[in-house]
Amino acid sequence: MRHSSMLVSIYLNVDKLHVIASTVNNAIDTPVSLLGAYNVIVAIQLNDTVFFTMRLFGDLIFALLLAPCLAAKKAAVDRFPDFQAKSLASSPLKLSDASYGRLTKAPRDYSVAVLLTALEPRFGCVMCTAFQPEWELLGKSWTKGDKKGESRVIFGTLDFVDGKDTFQSLGLQTAPVLLFFRPTTGPLAVPGNAPLHYDFTGGQQTAEQIHAWVSRQIPDGPHPPISRPINWVRIIAVSTTALATITFIGVAWPYLLPIVQNRNLWAAISLIAILLFTSGHMFNHIRKVPYVVGDGHGGVSYFAGGFSNQYGLETQIVAAMYGLLSFATISLALKVPRISNPRAQQVAVVVWCGIIFVMYSFLLSVFRIKNGGYPFWLPPFS
């Protein structure tokens, strides 16, 4: 029995392992086995360059063929250390289409939070611009508080300019969009690779709100707190304003005290506040009602039908009616009795009573607009 020799060339790259075997001695009396004690000549080539050639046993050849396969499999899963090192230098990571694909592809034994946004002014995304500082604060605070990567979470940002293909593949028409990819391998793995979506419909979001949402997705891991930087400009501005106010009050207090103690002033302020809030001012702020609307015929509608609707100008008109009625009643009760001239007093009574009658007639007409089934009215308004 004669042994045979074989030339094995191994080409290594990142993704594939190519093994080419050619027989040097065609005279083979027994089958060739990589696990047997047959001598072979091994040439290892990397990027078309032969590094060394040596004669080894079959078991060593098997190990050389198997090791790159295992290393490639491990590299496909354990990408976290590389991305964690980049995050320590700059978090959230600035991504492109290619880096987004590498970061989120399965298998993956770590979590990924990616913000897809459009920051350039030409896109006109106000929410994107307003939310970006909060997102960067969250990424930096989380990475700073978890330098060892125990939570195994990577934060990244993909701008539309750098990720048009990703936006198109995801079918996104709006921004910002926050995606959270959970691990596909390991103890916290979930089936599938579909990300979770954060809901931005509630308006402007803060870093604390996003932090709470991300923490709910990884209940067993550490949750580094948000660390907001000290706003020295705001502190200085508030301190300066407070000192200036205290100084002004101290200097002007002898002149302000009589005004503060004036009962007529407080009565006027109270009356204005009562008229303002009873006319529906807070309703306008809560419902964000329009000031006026068109009536469909080229004109303007000042009053909205129904008790659950109103316009901004309607509130001001109602407040003016209430104010005029209140002033007329107070004058008729307090000012008119003090008039010493009987004829002048009689004229004042007629004038103020006429004002009350006309304004009450107008008030009833407005009430009939709000409630069409109301049967009562007073002239001159019907």
How would you portray this structure in words?
There is one protein chain. By secondary structure, the protein is α/β, with parallel strands linked by helices. The protein has 3 domains: 6-76, no CATH class; 80-217, Glutaredoxin; 262-370, no CATH class. It is 47% helix and 15% strand. It has helices spanning 58-77, 80-89, 97-104, 126-145, 164-170, 207-217, 232-260, 263-278, 281-287, 312-335, 342-370; strands at residues 6-12, 17-23, 40-46, 49-56, 93-94, 111-117, 153-159, 177-181, 196-197, 293-294, 300-301. A hairpin with a 2-residue loop joins strand 3 (40-46) and strand 4 (49-56). It is elongated.
Would you tell me the structural class of the helices and strands? alpha/beta
Strand order of the largest sheet: 5-7-6-8-9
The CATH superfamily of the largest domain bears the name Glutaredoxin
SS elements, strand count: 11
Order of helices and strands: EEEEHHEHEHEHEEHHHHEEHH
**Portion in strands:** 5-15%
What form results from the Cα inertia axes?
elongated
pLDDT under 50 segments (min length 5)?
1-76
Tell me the radius of gyration. 40 Å
What share of the residues lie within helices?
Answer: 40-55%
How far do the termini sit from each other?
124 Å
In total, the number of domains comes to: 3
Helix count equals 11
Output the CATH class name of the largest domain.
Alpha Beta
Largest sheet: 5 strands, mixed
